[in-house]
Amino acid sequence: MDYSEKYVGSKGDFLKFMNDVVMKMGSRSLTIEEEVIELPEDVELEYKIKYDEDEEEYKLAIKVCWLKPGVEEAEDAD
Questions:
Q1: What is the pLDDT of residues 56-78, one digit of tens each?
Q2: Is 2 inside a domain boundary?
């Protein structure tokens, strides 16, 4: 299931938003569409930053991924 929220603002608004997101991740209080997002402490995180541009716009994306509990063991069993 995907959860998302969209915001529009100035560069200053964006930097404040990013600071707030990082602070909330650290205090385990980040929510997206009322879904609490907690970064696990017992698995490795894979994180990426991506920059892209085309004729119409520039894009900057930050992505963090981790395995769900039990997935790692199931893959090792094969």
A1: 999 999 999 999 988 865 555 55
A2: no
Closest to 62 (Cα-Cα) out of 8, 12, 14? 14
Q: Residue 47: which domain range?
A: 11-77
Residue 1 structure tokens: 């299931």
Q: Is 23 helix (H, G, I), strand (E, B) or coil?
A: helix
Domain count along the chain: 1
The one-letter amino acid at 27: S
Tokens read off for 2: 């995907």
Q: Is residue 5 part of a domain?
A: no
73, part of any domain: yes
- Among residues 43, 49, 41, the alpha carbon closest in space to that of 18 is found at 49
